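Lab notebook, bench 4. The sequencing result for the construct came back, and we need a structural model before the next group meeting so we can plan mutations. Quick request posted to the team channel:

Model the 3D structure of this chain.
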Amino acid sequence: MMSNSIKIQRIPYEEPHLLELHWTIHGEETASYFELYDNAKILNNLANALSDFPKHSADNYLYQLGSEKPEDNFSYFFSLNIFMRNHRGHDAGMDVRFVNYQEHADTRTVDFRLYTNAPQLRILGELFEKFSKLESEILFWDTHNSFVGSEDEFKSGNWKNINA
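Done. Here's the predicted structure in token form:
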């Protein structure tokens, strides 16, 4: 059984106006990969939303890009919904949805639900804040380890666990 994790690799493209982000998401028993193109504000928006999440026990954050309707002629639809799972304000969840409408796409649809807790989401917010400076290639987060840095550092495995 795999642990819930998110790895985002930043591919320098037309920065800072357009980011190419390669997402790999692992759920309890499956994993998926997709490529997302967006402006740099996505990283700031995610950092700001998660840095003090939740504000209350029913807090919810939704980020969407594109359209889920093929007739709207977007290349893809991306949705990240972060929510609280109970009224105590501790258990949280994250729904990730990616639909690719391009004819020759390797990935068509990705649907994931990851479970975590509010403190872990705040750590993820800190990672997005560091990643938004566009100085690092990799963002990695799971419930035990977190990392922002170069691909070589990530592959070495010799990185500081900021969750400790």
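The first strand starts at residue 5 and ends at 14.
Will bring this to the meeting.
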